[in-house]
Design goal:
By secondary structure, this protein is of the alpha+beta class. 23% of the residues lie in helices and 21% in strands. The chain has helices at 30-37, 63-69, 71-75, and strands spanning 2-3, 10-11, 15-18, 24-27, 53-55, 58-60. The strands form three sheets. Strands 1-2 form a two-stranded antiparallel ribbon. A hairpin with a 5-residue loop joins β3 and β4 (24-27).
Length: 86
């Protein structure tokens, strides 16, 4: 069994998530994994669980928040798959 690093539950079906940086995290649910690992929108502060958008290394939940917060680069963001600033 392994212990979830968020809630402390010792669960036989806990799982590990390995990040790009090589960190290893143990969770008992996707909810706990999202709570710990999901980026937070820099405009509205919600957890980004979907695609979200990135502007110059800053994360936003949607194009609206990127446009509201990220200046001229954010103005280029649209809520569509594959859309990104030039």
């Amino acid at each position: 069994m392994a212990t979830c690093e968020v809630c402390g539950n010792d669960y036989w079906m806990a799982f590990e998530v390995r990040t790009v940086s090589g960190d290893v995290h143990t969770f008992d649910s996707f909810e706990c994994a999202a709570h710990r690992l999901a980026p937070i929108c820099e405009h509205c502060q919600v957890k980004v669980l979907g695609h979200g958008v990135e502007v110059s290394g800053r994360f936003f939940c949607c194009g609206h928040c990127a446009r509201a917060q990220a200046g001229s680069q954010g103005a280029e963001i649209r809520d569509a798959v594959g859309a990104r600033p030039a």
